[in-house]
Specification:
Length: 229
């Protein structure tokens, strides 16, 4: 029997730098990349279109299991996200969509509806999986598990900078309070709460740049013998 593709999981709260770090690592390793948060965001878009809200848990679970999501790398290196063939990359990146995704993510049937889709992305030569429950629930046998954090203020400042660069004017104190609120909901939910796996390596990126975080994770992978050199 062949062994399954190795998985590196990067979990942590919003804005800790998981996305950038995971994409850099997937390029370096030439492994696939799973942005699991994008799946919850795409579901929020799909649900909005058919008028489903948190009170429709079982329909949401069915929708999660049946929607066709595709991640397509673009020429400009940005991954495009397609829902049933339509490019929804812009729609899913708004704060409102992130907040709606976080509400839907608290529903057990939604989480189980998205499990199969996530497992199917585990293919050779390997997978970098970015999310909240990658190391605890979705890929408990990952070769290396990282829990990446940063203070809420630093995370809000980073998010603020990203949004300003996109030409969106947002209020920083409001962003800080929304991040705190989302953290509380993600960590406090009954199913798959945001928490480090017992065997996760915890890394605080508040005072580290992306390169330093990537180097530390690469060192972990080598020490864990997940890489040949
Ligand atoms: O990471 P991102 O901000 O795109 O995720 C949006 C929301 O989806 C999170 O706030 C969280 O509630 C949810 N999520 C989750 N489990 C994951 C990934 C994201 O619950 N593995």
């Amino acid at each position: 029997m062949t062994s399954p593709a190795p998985v590196l999981t990067i979990d942590g709260p919003s804005g800790a730098g998981k996305g950038t770090v995971s994409q850099r690592l997937s390029e370096k390793l030439q492994w696939h990349y799973l942005d699991s948060g994008a799946l919850y965001r795409v579901l929020a878009v799909a649900a909005g279109r058919v008028g489903l809200g948190v009170e429709h848990e079982s329909q949401l679970g069915q929708l999660a299991a049946s929607m066709q999501v595709e991640f397509r790398p673009n020429r400009d290196d940005l991954v495009r996200v397609l829902l049933d063939g339509e490019d929804v990359s812009g729609l899913i990146r708004t704060e409102a969509c992130g907040n709606k995704a976080s509400e839907l993510a608290a529903l057990p049937q939604v989480r189980s509806g998205l499990l199969d889709l996530q497992h199917r992305m585990r293919t050779l030569p390997g997978l970098v999986a970015d999310g909240r429950d990658m190391g605890t629930v979705v890929f408990p046998d990952a070769v290396v598990k990282i829990f990446l954090t940063a203070s809420p203020e630093i995370r809000a400042q980073r998010r603020h900078k990203q949004l300003m660069e996109k030409g969106l004017d947002v209020n920083l104190p409001r962003l800080i309070s929304e991040i705190r609120e989302r953290d509380l909901r993600d960590a406090g939910r009954a199913v798959s709460p945001l928490r480090p796996a017992e065997d996760a390596f915890q890394l605080d990126s508040s005072c580290l740049d992306i390169g330093a975080v990537v180097d530390q994770i690469m060192r972990r992978l080598r020490e864990g013998h997940a890489l040949k050199s």
